[in-house]
């Protein structure tokens, strides 16, 4: 599967803004290469499947019905106790303590919601086509949406309290603890609507974009692609694009194109509907730019994202165009067909990587950096927090879901023994370590904005890559390892900014009316051609490949976070390589902060400033230098 096109676990628009961010943080399919071993003839050990009983025993468990009833009661009681009182009570001399008690009650409800929806979402991700599971997921989502309607008033009233009053109240230590969350919430104040409109938007979420999200998931999971006489699901078909046999890559690409083409009207309808739904929401709330709501959720300034995008697009010729020309030369061609973009290099090692080898590689790389980091990652293996096998109906791609601080994260991936699968695992475990460390901040303040959500995951990959590079002695295998890392960075930075450009074009043009599938394909080809360059030959059928990218559906404009994170980590890793022994401690402190600090505060101890116009050029320069090293190898 193309890097950074993973499935994600979504939380419906059913609870507080902070909780929504916590439960809708997709992590991504990944990347680099490790030394492969020849496939063993003996039967491979069974891959781990997650144990969800830390949340609930089964979808029929009586505890679920109990907790849903408790949620109904707690939400109604919360509204009865606090609605209409926030401004008056907070202004009193003991207002800070009173409001802190309200926030604690709100946080407890948020944690319960997180437990319920996380379990329902994880079960559904494990099998998106089982009717009973789909009904369960839909019913739980609907119950949460209905119950949490009683909570809508809280953020609205909180944000209407005068600045002086709330600042005075936060001098009370109990409320001061929640200062990051309160200040974060109040940034949404300019975009809030009248209470009844907010309630309408909230209640209709499960029958509007929530329903279309489910339709996309179920449609993708149900598609079958005919390759070599076999009917394959999307994940193994996408995996064939990385097969060593050119005829298999071509056959897979053509099968993808045919099935996508047969379903283009459905995907065009989903895309048009969700783009219009977002436009309505943005217009009512007063967002000017199509991506402003994402920037606000990410707590990142528009000009910072614009600078990132401009830097990456300007670097296309120096990075992706240059690398793909080099890759074509390794295949003794002037141009590569689009289905060969992620083809294994001719001199790369062959074979499959056993699960236990992947586990050992990653834990050693993590442990060399920080024993604490490795200890946390090891729990994912020991306590069955990972679901690794490919199964019919299972969500494609990979993610690490934080669930809720009173529980622990879970990782989903589709492990097939490919070198990139190892780096996917390293990536998702980086997310998992981050989520475990941040959990102490509580349900309201553990979630990390997307500007930093990819930092730990990409850093974990870099640690793994550097260790592998250092221990690889064979010159050709070092070259293959380095080339794999460059490809991963291109997929993470260049490809994701191209995705962002595609989304901007779609959402902007949708404001003038519906787009046909043909028009969407034309926009896709335009941005892909610009980013891939002349050494990649785009063959007929590629115009449909926008259809399977889940981020476009579930998390509009999410994708730039990957480029943000990768360029940031390149700069951060450069600091690490030249740092004293205290770097690991500062790094873990950054992860432990969760959402309590702005990204600029968290980067300051490392001497990094993303607002500096030259910041992104430094991260991109790391990729350029690697390509230069590859060119020197011949």
Tell me about this structure.
The chain has 634 residues and is mostly helical. It has a domain of 158 residues: Butyryl-CoA Dehydrogenase, subunit A, domain 3, CATH 1.20.140.70. The chain has 30 helices and seven strands. The protein has a three-stranded mixed sheet with strand order 4-6-5, sandwiched between helices. Strands 1-2 form a two-stranded antiparallel ribbon. Strands 3-7 form a two-stranded parallel sheet. Helix 18 crosses helix 20 and helix 20 packs across helix 22.
- The 3D shape can be described as globular
Q: How many individual helices?
A: 30
Task: Compute the CA-based radius of gyration.
Answer: 24 Å
**What's the CATH H-level superfamily name of the domain at 52-209?**
Oligopeptidase f, N-terminal domain
Helix content: 55-70%
Spatial separation of the terminal alpha carbons: 28 Å
Low-confidence stretches: 1-42
CATH topology of the domain at 52-209: Butyryl-CoA Dehydrogenase, subunit A, domain 3
The CATH architecture term of the domain at 52-209 is Up-down Bundle
CATH class of the domain at 52-209: Mainly Alpha
Report the portion of residues in β strands: under 5%
- Estimated structural class: mainly alpha
Mean pLDDT: 89
- Largest beta-sheet details: 3 strands, mixed
Biggest sheet, spatial arrangement of strands: 4-6-5
Instruction: Give me the count of strands.
Output: 7
């Amino acid at each position: 599967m193309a890097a950074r096109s993973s499935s994600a676990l979504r939380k419906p628009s059913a609870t507080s803004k902070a909780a929504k961010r916590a439960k809708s943080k997709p992590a991504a399919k990944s990347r680099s290469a490790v030394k492969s071993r020849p496939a063993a003839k003996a039967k491979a050990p069974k891959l781990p499947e997650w144990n969800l009983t830390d949340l609930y025993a089964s979808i029929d468990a009586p505890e679920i019905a109990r907790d849903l009833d408790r949620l109904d009661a707690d939400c109604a009681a919360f509204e009865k106790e606090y609605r209409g009182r926030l401004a008056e009570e907070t202004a009193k001399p003991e207002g800070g303590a009173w409001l802190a008690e309200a926030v604690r009650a709100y946080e407890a409800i948020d944690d319960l919601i997180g437990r319920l929806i996380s379990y329902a979402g994880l079960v559904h991700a494990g099998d998106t086509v089982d009717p009973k599971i789909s009904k369960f997921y839909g019913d739980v989502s609907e119950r949460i949406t209905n119950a949490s309607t009683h909570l809508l008033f809280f953020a609205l009233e909180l944000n209407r309290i005068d600045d002086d009053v709330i600042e005075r109240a936060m001098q009370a230590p109990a409320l001061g603890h929640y200062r990051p969350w309160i200040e974060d919430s109040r940034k949404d104040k300019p975009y809030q609507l009248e209470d009844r409109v907010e309630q309408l938007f909230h209640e209709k979420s499960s029958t509007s974009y929530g329903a279309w999200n489910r339709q996309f998931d179920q449609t993708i999971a149900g598609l079958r692609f005919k390759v070599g006489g076999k009917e394959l699901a999307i994940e193994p078909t996408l995996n064939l694009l990385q097969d060593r046999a050119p005829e298999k890559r071509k056959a897979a690409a053509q099968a993808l194109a045919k099935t996508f083409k047969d379903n283009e009207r459905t995907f065009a309808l989903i895309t048009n509907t969700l783009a219009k739904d977002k436009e309505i929401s943005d217009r009512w709330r007063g967002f000017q730019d199509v991506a402003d709501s994402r920037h606000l959720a990410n707590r990142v300034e528009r000009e910072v994202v614009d600078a990132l995008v401009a830097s990456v697009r300007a670097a296309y010729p120096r990075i992706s165009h240059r690398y793909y020309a080099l890759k074509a030369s390794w295949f003794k061609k002037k141009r590569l067909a689009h289905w060969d973009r992620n083809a294994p290099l001719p001199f790369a090692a062959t074979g499959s990587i056993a699960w236990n080898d992947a586990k050992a590689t990653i834990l050693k790389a993590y442990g060399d950096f920080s024993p604490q980091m490795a200890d946390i990652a090891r729990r994912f293996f020991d306590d069955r927090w990972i679901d690794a096998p490919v199964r019919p109906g299972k969500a494609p791609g990979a993610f690490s879901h934080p669930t809720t601080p009173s529980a622990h994260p879970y990782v989903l991936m589709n492990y097939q023994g490919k070198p990139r699968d190892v780096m996917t695992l390293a990536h998702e475990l980086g997310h998992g370590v981050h989520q475990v460390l941040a959990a102490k901040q509580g349900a309201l303040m553990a979630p990390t904005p997307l500007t930093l959500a990819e930092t730990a995951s990409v850093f974990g990959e870099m640690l793994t890559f550097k260790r592998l590079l250092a221990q690889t002695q064979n010159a050709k295998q070092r070259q293959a390892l380095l080339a794999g890392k460059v490809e991963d960075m291109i997929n993470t930075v260049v490809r994701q900014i191209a995705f962002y450009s595609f989304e901007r074009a779609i959402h902007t043009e949708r404001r003038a009316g519906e787009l046909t599938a043909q028009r969407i394909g034309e926009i896709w080809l335009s941005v892909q051609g610009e980013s891939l360059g002349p050494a990649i030959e785009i063959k007929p059928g590629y115009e449909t490949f926008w259809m399977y990218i889940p981020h476009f559906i579930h998390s509009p404009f999410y994708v730039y976070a990957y480029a943000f994170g990768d360029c940031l980590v390149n700069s951060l890793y450069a600091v690490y390589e030249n740092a004293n022994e205290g770097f690991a401690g500062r790094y873990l402190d950054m992860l432990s902060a969760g959402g309590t600090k702005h990204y600029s505060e968290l980067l300051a101890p490392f001497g990094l400033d993303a607002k500096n116009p030259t910041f992104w050029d430094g991260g991109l320069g790391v990729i350029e230098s690697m390509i230069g090293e590859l060119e020197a190898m011949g």
